[in-house]
Design goal:
The structure is a single chain. The protein is mainly beta and 743 residues long. 7% of the residues lie in helices and 38% in strands. It is built from three helices and 52 strands. The strands form 14 sheets. Strands 1-32-31-30-29 form a five-stranded mixed β-sheet, with no helix packed on it. Strands 46, 47, 50, 51 and 52 form a five-stranded antiparallel β-sheet that branches. Helix 2 packs antiparallel against helix 3. It is elongated and about 105 Å long. The chain starts with a helix and ends in a 9-residue tail after the last helix.
Length: 743
């Protein structure tokens, strides 16, 4: 019996061992399958990104130099800044000195404080140690700084527009150049400095609580006194928005863009002004709270548009005349105090995106497709970003990143090819993006980040540390950080974007290349801006089954590659066509009355051509430039059922002088062809022998036919077209004696 019982126990133990080993085997198989499938599982926004590992260059406690104010509780509002620092090399040592102002928030401040106050610091870029500072009871967290030569001595000055104060300082010493106090007005808006033919002007704007009609001021840069104020038909309240500036209509002159949080009857909304503060246009129905107008070429036509983000929407306004090209207030974008958003083609699809946040998820809105492309959240699980990002290259790759500052540190979001994802974060600093400057401070070719940070033991929203981090991102050479959001175009992009600089005599221009059909164009050198006289080589590269056809706009012909010399803002179109798509202009013929006559009752001109096409003609035009340089664009008529087009006119050639003309044609595939330019001249009736001047030879020719008669204007000797050659013809010629018309 014991033997049988032992055998049973042995069998049971064997079964247990087999069953246990089988379970281990099954677990092993499941784990192996999961490991194989893991790379196929898509990443989500909840994935924890890698850390940036930016290197701290220096950190300075500003409380050591001027005591920071804070309330008794952990949630009291304290010193902070809602605008980024500015920086420039003020002493030609190769380093960019940093200027930053921090203070109380005017709208939500510590209730125990009876007045606004703030401190402006000038920081050594190598150590972060202030080399001067200035405390003002009327500065605060919205004090906006800029660095320009205000008095014409060749040295940079600091312009600080505070709550109730505007002060100009010498940048190196901190000595006050001038100071203006406005206890009843708010002055904390982005301003402009314009050098107009040697006269340096400062343009400021304000919220006035008593008189609303004069809100934009044109001041003398040397002393701050007001030279002129803009006249408004009603109230204007720029809030924390302010002034933007550029040559938005390519007339060679600067225009000013102002914003208004009010809208409707008698309000200004979005407005455009000359430098003499004459209003060019106004869109009273567009409200902008805390945001400047962003100036970009949204549609690639060579002219700047104004981009604004009102409550939850976007407007694209043609800068030339104020026409709303597209816009709505119900697009799902952030609402409330949306500080000036960033505008950039962040995903490289050829369309600009607007990236905005205001205590919410950040939204990426494609201005080309007019849709929200992405909603961006914080990597630590919180839903909101408090401010819009700065666009810069800090990660060390070839693309630009959206750099957000949050209470959990920096967050870098990549938008390449429309795949928006957090690629890195830095959690050892607490900051906010509108308090961030991204710029090459030490001239090493790499961007640094300068930002405010929380200090231990200080109340909520108290930023007493200013820190500088090295990054791996390549800096864009020539990028200026002397103004709010880098330039007067207010784009919030750390890149050398063409913009006006009153301290530079160099004019920067853009070269925009558009294409029709399938292909691409390379630029060599490939830069975001050029200076006058730069030579750029353009090379058209075709896709399969397509061929390069011709250049348009600022270039003509079909030479490939081709060089273009930069003389202004230029737009070039590259035309590609499918192989086998034929479109040719031939047999161009000009016929005219004999003699030619500028009087439409007696003279006429006929221009014709033949067009060969395999797809179908959409439009044919005759482009005529008259002696005054004006271009007439007239349709050509089709004669019969073939491809023979002609133009006949008794009026378009009534001016004396030299004409040029060419024929332009477009087929249904949008392929465009232009002929060469041709020239002809219309001589005056008193130049009988058509030699370019009136002299005795013309009188001799009339004398040879004196007394003859015929159909009026039958020969040129009938100068007055009355059908008889007589003394009146001699008088007409004599009245123009010695005149020259042919140059």
């Amino acid at each position: 019996m014991k033997l049988l019982e032992m055998i049973k126990n042995q069998r049971w133990n064997a079964k247990k061992i087999i069953r246990k080993n089988s379970n281990i085997f099954y677990v092993f198989i499941v784990l192996l399958i999961l490991l194989l499938l893991l790379p196929m599982i898509p990443k989500t926004t909840a994935d924890i990104p890698s850390t940036c590992n930016f290197t701290s260059k220096w950190s300075t406690n500003l409380d050591d130099y001027y005591p920071i104010g804070w309330g008794p509780g952990a949630t009291d509002y304290c010193y902070s800044s809602n605008v980024p620092p500015v920086a420039a090399d003020i002493n030609d040592d190769g380093w960019k000195e940093i200027f930053i102002c921090i203070g109380y928030d005017h709208d939500i401040r510590n209730p125990l404080q009876l007045k606004d106050e703030g401190t402006l610091y000038a920081l050594d870029p190598q150590t972060g140690v202030p080399f001067w500072w200035y405390h003002c009871d009327d500065f605060g967290s919205h004090t906006v700084l800029s660095l320009h030569d205000l008095d014409g001595d060749g040295n940079l000055d600091v312009l600080a527009t505070g709550y109730h104060n505007i002060t100009a300082f010498h940048a190196e010493s901190g000595d006050i150049l001038w100071n203006k106090n406005y206890p009843d007005n708010r002055e904390d808006k982005p301003a402009l400095v314009i050098n107009e033919n040697g006269n340096i002007w400062v343009y400021t704007c304000q919220n006035r609580y008593d008189i609303y009609q004069k809100t934009i001021q044109k001041r003398w840069g040397i002393n701050g006194s007001i030279a002129k104020e803009a006249d408004f038909p009603g109230p204007i309240h720029p809030c924390h928005g302010g002034l933007s500036c550029a040559d938005i209509n390519n007339d060679g002159k600067l225009e000013i863009i102002s914003v208004d949080r009010n809208y409707g009857d008698n309000c200004q909304g979005l407005s455009c002004w000359t430098l003499d503060l004459t209003q060019l246009w106004s869109q009273s129905g567009i409200s902008c709270s805390t945001s400047c107008g962003v100036l970009v070429d949204e549609n690639g036509d060579g002219y700047l548009d104004v981009i604004v983000e009102p409550e939850g929407g976007v407007y694209v306004v043609d800068g030339r005349d104020g026409t709303i090209r597209k816009g709505s207030t119900s697009l799902g974008l952030p609402t409330g105090e949306v500080y000036t958003p960033a505008v950039y083609d962040i995903d490289g699809d050829g369309h600009l995106e607007i990236i905005a946040a205001a205590g919410s998820t950040a939204k990426v809105f494609d201005l080309g497709t007019w849709t929200i492309e992405a909603s961006l959240k914080r990597w630590d699980g919180y839903a909101y970003f408090s401010k819009s990002p700065i666009i810069a290259n800090v990660y060390g790759d070839s693309s630009m990143e959206m750099v957000f500052g949050t209470s959990a540190g920096f967050q870098l979001i990549d938008g390449t090819h429309g795949h928006y994802q957090t690629i890195a974060y830095q959690d050892d600093i607490h900051t906010c993006s509108d308090r961030m400057l991204i710029q090459d401070i030490d001239n090493d070719g790499k961007n640094e980040i300068v930002a405010l940070a929380h200090g231990t033991g200080y109340g909520y929203n108290s930023y007493n540390f200013v820190t500088c981090y090295d990054t791996e991102g390549d800096a864009s050479p020539g990028t200026s950080s002397k103004d709010f959001l880098y330039s007067y175009r207010r784009i919030a992009v750390s890149e050398n974007i063409p913009s006006y600089d009153p301290d530079s005599q160099i004019n920067y221009y853009t070269l925009t290349v558009n294409k029709i059909g399938k292909g691409s164009v390379t630029k060599n050198p490939n830069k975001s801006q050029y200076i006058y006289g730069d030579v750029v080589t353009l090379t058209a590269i075709t896709d399969t089954s397509w061929t390069f056809d011709n250049w348009g706009r600022s270039l003509s012909g079909n030479q490939n590659p081709v060089t273009v010399t930069i003389v202004n803002n230029m737009v070039v179109t590259a035309q590609f066509k499918e192989k086998g798509d034929v479109l040719e202009i031939s047999n161009m013929i000009l016929k005219h009355s004999n003699p030619l006559d500028t009087d439409p009752l007696f003279g006429w001109v006929n221009i014709s051509c033949s067009i060969a096409d395999t797809a179908g003609i959409r439009d044919v035009r005759l482009l005529i430039k008259n002696p005054r340089g004006l271009l007439n664009n007239v349709s050509m008529n089709k004669k019969g059922t073939n491809t023979y087009y002609y133009y006949y006119s008794n009026t378009a050639f009534s001016q004396v002088g030299d004409y040029t003309y060419k024929i332009w044609v477009k087929n249904i595939n949008n392929i465009i062809r232009s002929s060469n330019n041709f020239a002809f001249s219309m001589s005056p009736n008193w130049d009988i022998n058509n030699d370019g001047e009136c002299n005795v030879l013309d009188q001799v020719m009339i004398s040879l036919h004196y007394g003859q008669s015929g159909t009026p204007g039958w020969i040129r000797e009938d100068a007055d077209n009355n059908g008889r050659i007589q003394v009146l013809d001699l008088i007409l010629v004599s009245s123009h004696y010695s005149e020259i018309w042919l140059v």
